[in-house]
Amino acid sequence: MSRRSKVLMIWVWAVVVGIPAANGCFPGEQAYEEAEEAALVYTNATAVYSSKFHGNESKAVYSPLMVGLTLIHAAAAEGAVCLDGTLPGYHLHRGYGSGANSWLIQLEGGGWCNSIRTCVYRKTTRRGSSRYMEKHLAFTGILSNRAELNPDFFNWNRVKVRYCDGASFLGDSENKAARLQFRGQRIWVAAMRDLLSKGMRNAHQALLSGCSAGGLAAILHCDEFRELFPRTTKVKCLSDAGLFLDSQTRRSWVPYSPELVQWCSEVAGGGKESASSVHQPSESNSANCGNWPPFLLHQCFFPQHIIATVKTPLFLLNAAYDSWQIQSSLAPPSADPRGYWNGCRKNNAKCTPSQIKFLQGFRYRMLRTVRRFSMSKANGMFINSCFAHCQTERQDTWFADYSPAIRNKVTDDS
Fold first, then answer.
1. Which of 29, 59, 349, 392 is 20 to 30 A from residue 324's alpha carbon, by CA?
2. Is 279 helix (H, G, I), strand (E, B) or coil?
3. How far apart are CA 396 and CA 49, in angstroms?
4. What is the three-class DSSP state of 363?
């Protein structure tokens, strides 16, 4: 297959759904940031890329663009700070030529903290404090500046907004006793305001994207992003690996999405800890939930319940066998004390026939969930049958030889 992007010509949405064992999928791919078969290793600003696909090996060596961290100094006055009170930040690489007035905003992902204990720990990491963030970040995949690796967005203004609030850029509260600031919404506003002042307000086209927790944030903030621009600006949103399902499995010993259910309940004020001590949603985020009763309020944080309310054109990119959801939601170690799912959870080649059948049921639920969404001509999706998570940020899954394909087609073929 020729080297091409799965979201080539992204302004022309299409609906593409994969079948099991689609060409280009990785056998036994590990979860986000834990991949072993396909990885980018950075040494002295040099990336050594090596991937294995069904016995075929593809190697390339190149130096990725390293982009410096910009702290948002005006954010302090607005109370827009990370969990530990430090300034939020982003990485910006300026566009040029035909992309000088086009902007791509990528919201960083990285899980959630769903209790005071986990948030206290998180503020000692790059996910909760800019003190620990990398001063320079490699721009690869959808953020690459090389036309041969990222033909659609290489010369756009490309931004990576760092994630340090622990709740998908949501919430507006604090816990003084634990010295925690839950200011995700304020960070979102401060980052957008700073970027608008640096030329984004003049954008002819703008794309809000994100991966994992950032993919969820891209959905939740999509319409807010649209309102930042005049009607003449073409605005769309892309959620990569953000389609976290709210669904109960028949096997009670494998609880579905326990982390997300707990986190969302606490965000909405219905968990063991009050909303004043864990992320409290702002009015702008709660608006998507309308007049939902309190016992259903947590559902507004699961994309399947809110994608129908998003007015701005939205594209969903997801693996039907999302490796994070399989490892952390479908069969987490805490729900599998005997280790029955241990091998399958880490490598699908080790799954038993009954486990494969169970995972195919997960795929079916995902496709059923987006069926109505796919009927809108304004929306689009690319759902492949890979064991993967976050495909836009990795060069091997974004634009490379043997990148994931569906019946030898990518989005622009459909």
1. 59
2. coil
3. 8
4. helix
Q: Which residues make beta-bridge pairs with 234?
A: 205
pLDDT digits (tens, 9 = 90+) for 127-165: 999 999 999 999 999 999 999 999 999 999 999 999 999
165, 239, 389, 396: the active-site residue: 389
Q: What's the CA gap between 336 and 359, in Å, rounded?
A: 16
More confident residue, 256 or 3: 3
**DSSP state, 300?**
G
Lookup: tokens for 293 = 């009763």
Tokens of 230: 């005049």
Count, residues in the chain: 414
Q: Is 91 within 8 Å of 70 (Cβ atoms)?
A: yes
Q: Which amino acid is at 166?
A: G
Flag whether pLDDT at 60 surpasses 60. Answer: no
Q: Is residue 298 flagged as an active site residue?
A: no
- The share of the chain scoring above pLDDT 90, in percent, equals 51
**Phi, psi at 133, each rounded to 5°:** -70, 150
pLDDT in tens, 358-380: 999 989 999 999 999 999 989 99
Q: Do strands 38-43 and 180-182 pair parallel, antiparallel, or not at all (unpaired)?
A: unpaired
Is 212 a catalytic site residue? Answer: yes
Per-residue pLDDT of 263-309, as tens digits, reads 555 544 433 343 323 445 455 554 455 556 666 666 767 888 889 88
- Kindly write down the DSSP assignment for every residue of 57-126, as one continuous string: EEEEEE-PEEEEEEE-GGGGGGT---TTSPPPEEEEE---GGGTTEEEEEE-------SHHHHHHHTTST
Q: Which residue of the set 102, 168, 212, 374 is catalytic?
A: 212
Residues 328 and 249: their CA atoms lie apart, in Å, by 14
The active-site residue out of 165, 172, 194, 322 is 322
Say whether 165 is catalytic: no
